[in-house]
């Protein structure tokens, strides 16, 4: 595995995540600033309302002062002569009775019903749909980049496994070929000695060499087969472990993407080298 390329990919990915986080923080700061300005405006209106109330209270106190002066002037006036009138009792007429009995009772007019205008939620729905669309776009982009990252990562892992497998098998085959060559050389020397001597001792020696060569070949083939089997088992285990880790990382990426769709915030990772 090329560690330099891996580190460069990690640094580039860290820069992308940092840029996304900076953009999200900028949006949050702008939103907080807008909220602060909206909360400052009611305070100004409240100050204007308080000043208007103070002015009205001052005018009311002035009117009360004038009324107290008028009451004092009335109290100091000389009393007027009171004319007492004797009450006269008038006999009720038939027309009066008729008017009192026939006159209909006037009921108070009903107040007009207040009309409630229908609430227009189109703008709010559009705003929510835009926000959901933006968070979905951020989550999809982050998920796509992360899945591409782990894809490249495990492509490098599989390439390393294949390279290791090829190297180990080639080494085992070279060991087997070396045993075969040594056996052929030893047998050739034994035959030369037999042809040069042509006696019972040389023949026994040739038979002994052939038996030794056959045993070595058998042991070499057994070692080769066991070594190839061991290499294949290691490779299968490494591939299974890599596939399991890739699936787990994929699940974590999807879970994080779902959280981004809810919160709209991209997680910032710390790359330590």
Describe this structure in words.
With 273 residues, this protein is mostly helical. The protein folds into two domains: 1-70; 147-273. 81% of the residues lie in helices and 0% in strands. The protein has helices spanning 3-75, 94-102, 122-197, 200-263. α3 (122-197) runs antiparallel to α4 (200-263). The longest helix has 76 residues, at 122-197. Residues 147-248 form a coiled coil. Residues 30-139 are annotated as: Disordered. Residues 196-269 form the Remorin C-terminal domain. Keywords: Coiled coil.
Structure characteristics:
rod-shaped, mainly alpha, disordered N terminus, 273 residues
Number of strands: 0
Low-confidence stretches: 1-25, 39-51, 86-92, 94-106, 122-127
Order of helices and strands: HHHH
What sort of overall outline do the alpha carbons produce when their principal axes are compared? Answer: rod-shaped
Strand content: under 5%
| Domains (count) | 2
**Whole-number mean pLDDT:** 69
**With helices defined by DSSP (H or I, 4 residues minimum), what is the helix count?**
4
Q: How helix-rich are the residues, as a percent range? A: over 70%
Straight-line distance between termini:
16 Å
Can you summarize the main beta sheet?
A: none
């Amino acid at each position: 595995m090329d560690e330099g390329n891996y580190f460069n990919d990690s640094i580039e990915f860290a820069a992308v995540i940092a840029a996304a986080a900076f953009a999200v923080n900028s949006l949050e700061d702008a939103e907080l600033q807008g909220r602060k300005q909206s909360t400052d405006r009611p305070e100004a209106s409240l100050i204007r309302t308080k000043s208007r109330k103070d002015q009205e209270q001052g005018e009311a106190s002035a009117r009360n002062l004038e009324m107290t002066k008028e009451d004092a002037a009335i109290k100091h006036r000389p009393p007027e002569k009171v004319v007492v009138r004797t009450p006269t009792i008038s006999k009720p007429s038939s027309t009066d009775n008729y008017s009192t009995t026939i006159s209909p009772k006037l009921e108070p007019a009903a107040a007009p019903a207040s009309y409630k205008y229908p609430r227009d939620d189109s703008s709010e729905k559009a705003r929510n749909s835009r926000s959901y669309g933006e968070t979905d776009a951020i989550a999809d982009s982050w998920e796509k980049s992360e899945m591409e990252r782990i894809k490249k990562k495990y492509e490098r892992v599989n390439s390393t496994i294949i390279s290791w497998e090829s190297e180990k098998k080639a080494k085992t085959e070279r060991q087997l070929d070396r045993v075969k060559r040594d056996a052929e050389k030893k047998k050739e020397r034994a035959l030369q000695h037999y042809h040069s001597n042509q006696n019972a001792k040389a023949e026994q020696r040739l038979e002994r060499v052939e038996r030794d060569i056959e045993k070595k070949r058998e042991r070499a083939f057994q070692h080769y087969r066991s070594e190839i089997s061991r290499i294949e088992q290691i490779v299968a285990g490494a591939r299974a472990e890599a596939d399991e880790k890739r699936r787990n990382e994929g699940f974590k990426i999807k879970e994080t993407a779902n959280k981004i769709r809810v919160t709209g915030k991209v997680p910032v990772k710390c790359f330590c080298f």
